Amino acid sequence: MNCRQFITILGAAVVLLTSGCASLRPGGPQTMPAACLATCDRLGIAPTHYILTVNIARQTASLFEKNRFVESFKCSTSRFGIGEALDSDRTPLGLHRIAEKIGDGEQPGTIFQDREVIGNVSELGVAAGTITTRIMWLEGLEPGYNRGGNVDTHERLIYIHGTGDQHSLGRPASHGCIHLADPDLISLFDLLPSGTLVWIAAR
């Protein structure tokens, strides 16, 4: 039986969860965050075909297609915690979009500096690989919260990108950006068009 079985009782859709599907319960990690959709509605922004959500407490990124869960990935967010202020090295919360994509076709472990290729982890070492493989540059969509002034995500250079230290994934380790494993990053980079919404939440 499929994990999601919908039946209609008196016009109300009810989700029946089979054993092993407890994580699909409302509010669970495989449920589209209601706050994301509420923020889209408040800002008058239509949800994109794909939405990527980041859960800082769990150190996971989850992919949704048409608001249905597809897959989760281990990630790393800032070791300095949550925050939107310039020069804080913290990971911002709220609604974002992928503004620019950089590094298409580059080899895994490619190292970027100022978004230009300078080498590869295999040549320069893990410590040099602070930004690697692919870059998805985020833009905040909430004025005064993560967009504009001293809290502008794009101006802060907040990316989704790879890291030379793949063993750090699953725990806070970045300087504000979101790290993903190379295979996951490449797959998402190839799948998600610019403009795709990204929701970052504390939990």
Note the gap between the termini.
30 Å
Task: Write down how many β-strands occur, each being a DSSP E stretch of 2 or more residues.
Answer: 12
CATH topology of the largest domain, which one?
L,D-transpeptidase catalytic domain-like
Number of domains: 2
How is this structure best described in words?
By secondary structure, the chain is mainly beta. It contains three helices and twelve strands; from the N terminus they run ββαββββββαβββαβ. The strands form three sheets. It has an eight-stranded mixed beta barrel with strand order 3-4-5-11-10-9-6-12. The protein is globular, with a radius of gyration of 18 Å. Residues 1-26 have low confidence and may be disordered.
Name some characteristics of this structure.
single chain, 203 residues, mainly beta, L,D-transpeptidase catalytic domain-like, eight-stranded mixed β-barrel, two-stranded antiparallel sheet, 3 helices, disordered N terminus
Helix and strand layout, with pairings?
Elements lengths: L3 E6 L2 E6 L16 H10 L6 E6 L4 E6 L2 E9 L17 E9 L7 E4 L2 E5 H4 L7 E9 L18 E4 L15 E3 L1 H10 L5 E5 L2
Parallel strand pairs: 3-12, 10-11
Antiparallel strand pairs: 1-2, 3-4, 4-5, 5-11, 6-9, 6-12, 7-8, 9-10
